[in-house]
Write a structure and sequence with these properties.
Elements (H helix, E strand, L loop, with lengths): L10 H12 L19 H13 L6 E10 L1 E2 L9 E2 L8 E10 L7 E8 L11 H19 L6 E7 L3 E2 L3 H11 L2 E8 L7 H5 L4 E6 L2 H16 L5 E6 L5 H8 L5 E5 L21 H21 L7
Parallel strand pairs: 5-6, 5-8, 8-11, 9-10
Antiparallel strand pairs: 1-4, 1-7, 2-3, 4-6, 9-11
Length: about 300
């Protein structure tokens, strides 16, 4: 991979998309919020924005319909975990997964799968900047750049919903399994750059690759090596998580064991997690740019070497 490609990651585009999703025109990305003078809820509007943007870079953008409910709010639970399961009488809403495919030129049929959930909290009014507009805008930027580069392997990007229920990352993962998709790596971008206020004040640039399986550990350990190889000024850590959950967990449960979650800290230390204070002004854009560069480098190295990269 030519390291000069990493300089193409645009902090200005990341900021533009971040504030578009979290500040203006959208404050929230949920079925329960409709902007004044609009006929569609803000999650539907978000989907239209993402799909339209991605169609500039790929002819293979699919809106996959599904049905969701909003979580209930239960303020008796611990502060960052007020979400509660809906009741049977609660309404259902139409929603979508967005799947973007960048076909590779090779004949292996191998796929590199990227994920990010695009919705904000359905039980509380929060812009959800770190959770998870940052992962969404990173994947938007990755599609832009990867679409312009030669690729041997197919790159597929899933923009799903996780702050509503049920999680349709599971339906996407199960559909991939039923098709027999040969996914060689799954990278879930969720809360990139999310870290403690102390780390933010100290200007630490951090990235955590979290894994739940031995195969995932091999993928996670690729990231610090990649940062060192391309001299990215980013502290990159690997750590196990006991639970097989989140959108990466959906793919593990479907049989795709080489799967990781990318975060800004672990254990997760953002003081505004799942709170109204998760605003775009708190995002360390330089950290977000560096994490996006790291992910771009990892995807390109995976594309160049395929599964042989794990035996190096």
């Amino acid at each position: 991979m030519n390291p000069k490609v990493l300089a193409e990651v645009s902090q200005d585009r990341l900021r533009r998309d971040l504030f578009h999703l979290c500040r203006d025109p959208f404050s929230f990305r949920t079925v329960l919020y409709t902007r004044p003078w609009q006929s569609k809820n803000s999650l539907d509007e978000t989907d239209e924005f993402i799909a339209a943007e991605m169609r500039r870079y790929s002819s293979l953008v699919e809106m996959v319909p599904n049905r969701v409910q909003a979580f209930r709010c239960n303020s008796a639970k611990p502060l960052h975990h007020w979400y509660d399961k809906p009741q049977p009488e609660d309404p259902w809403y139409d929603a979508h997964n967005i799947e973007v495919t960048l076909p590779g030129s090779g004949s292996s049929g191998e796929i590199i799968q990227l994920i990010s959930h695009k919705d904000s909290m359905s039980w509380i009014n929060s812009p959800g900047a770190h959770d998870n507009a940052v992962g969404t805008v990173a994947n938007l930027e990755l599609v832009r750049l990867l679409s312009a580069l030669p690729r041997q392997r197919t790159v597929r990007v899933l923009f799903c919903n996780e702050e509503h229920t049920p999680w349709h990352s599971a339906s996407a993962a199960n559909a991939a399994r039923e098709r027999g998709d040969n996914i060689i790596a799954v990278l879930n971008q969720d809360s990139l750059d999310g870290k403690s206020d102390a780390d933010f004040a100290a200007k630490r640039k951090t990235h955590y690759a979290i894994y739940s399986t031995p195969e995932g550990q091999a993928l996670a350990e690729l990231l610090p090596r990649t940062a060192q190889r391309y001299q990215l000024p980013l502290e990159v850590f690997c750590a196990p998580k006991k639970c097989i959950n989140d959108d990466d967990g959906s793919f593990i449960k479907a049989g795709y064991q080489r799967t990781i979650m990318n975060l800004g800290s672990y254990p997760y230390s953002d003081e505004q997690y799942h709170l109204p204070g998760d605003i775009p002004e708190r995002v360390d854009l330089d950290n977000l740019r560096l994490s996006t560069q790291l992910l771009l480098a990892a995807v390109l190295d995976l594309d160049e070497r395929g599964e042989s990269i794990f035996s190096a």
